[in-house]
Write a structure and sequence with these properties.
The protein is an all-beta fold. The protein is 0% helix and 43% strand.
Amino acid sequence: MVRLSELRKINDEEIIKREAFQTHSGNAMGIVDLSFNSESTSLVTSCMDSTLRIFDISDNQIKLSNTIECEVMTNWKVESYNGRIYTGGDSGIITPYQLVDTKMEKQA
């Protein structure tokens, strides 16, 4: 937690200006979390519209490669690990997804 007494004004010299090399706007609602795979070749976003979107970023372009419909309130947090995607949310359940023939399938 940051205390108000610890905040300080940022000088113009301390601000690093960055420009997006590319953006993607295909989400119906806000993105609540995102995760890169270990090779940094794909990115998964978790959205408020109960979807996961998987993007191929291997050639520095953002290309949508898959969309997964999730149950409501189950995808507030997303993590990529060993070829799987794990989600968690208000349900208190961790849901794993596995890539099968270029489609993500929910694991039992």
